[in-house]
């Protein structure tokens, strides 16, 4: 975790607060890079953070609006994770034009996510930490009638997942690699 020469000269021209911020950022990026191959451990840590946040909300009977906004953010991230990077409806229109012209492209097109797994985990972890920290302050506890928010979240979840599943069926792609064959040495 040594600083390179260019980083050191750049840090010398900054204020002490900026230097500490940049060192903290380098420290954060170093351990973030170290966590890339640790997929199960990363997701277990996120599950633990989510459990702590939900436990805090349930035990205190507060911060329902924070919980709702956090849930909406995670749903949005999950949908980006399930969605292909390139619009399949435009690709299908191009293939139809090729068929009309007499050309057919049987080119293999791998599934590329709009939001890669690591970024999905990273953004979700950051959001969960922010939501957990927000439960430490009373001014972030805005009183709401939580059953309405819960029902509204369930409705949004069902409608968006229904739309996503129809899109997956229409364009025949599977965004998750659960159950796919693994090739290689045993």
TrEMBL record:
GO CC, any one term: endoplasmic reticulum
Signal peptide from the UniProt entry: none
Keywords per UniProt: Membrane, Transmembrane, Transmembrane helix
Coarse class of the protein's main subcellular location: membrane
Membrane-crossing segments per the record: 145-162
Keyword RNA-binding belongs to the record: no
Record-linked InterPro entries: Rer1
Pfam families tied to this protein: Rer1 (PF03248)
Topology class, membrane: Multi-pass membrane protein
Keyword Cell inner membrane assigned: no
Compartments, record wording: Membrane
Domain of life: Eukaryota
GO BP term, example: protein retention in ER lumen
UniProt cross-references to PANTHER family, sorted A to Z: PROTEIN RER1
Protein role: Involved in the retrieval of endoplasmic reticulum membrane proteins from the early Golgi compartment.
Entry similarity comment: Belongs to the RER1 family.
Protein name stated in the entry: Protein RER1
Annotated source species: Zygosaccharomyces mellis
């Amino acid at each position: 975790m040594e600083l390179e020469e260019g980083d050191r000269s750049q840090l010398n021209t900054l204020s002490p607060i900026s230097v500490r911020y940049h060192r903290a950022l380098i420290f954060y990026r170093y351990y973030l890079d170290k966590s890339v191959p640790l997929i199960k451990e990363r997701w277990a840590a996120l599950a633990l953070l989510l459990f702590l946040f939900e436990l805090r909300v349930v035990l205190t009977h507060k911060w329902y609006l924070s919980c709702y906004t956090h849930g909406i953010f995670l749903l949005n991230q999950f949908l980006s994770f399930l969605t292909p990077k390139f619009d399949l409806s435009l690709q299908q229109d191009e293939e139809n034009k090729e068929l009309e012209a007499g050309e057919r492209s049987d080119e293999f097109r791998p599934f590329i996510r709009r939001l890669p797994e690591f970024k999905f985990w990273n953004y979700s972890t950051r959001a969960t930490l922010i939501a957990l920290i927000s439960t430490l302050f009373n001014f972030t506890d805005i009183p709401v009638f939580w059953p309405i928010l819960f029902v509204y979240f369930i409705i949004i979840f069902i409608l968006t997942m229904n739309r996503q599943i129809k899109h997956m069926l229409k364009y025949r792609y599977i965004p998750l690699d659960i159950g796919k064959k693994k090739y290689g040495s045993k």
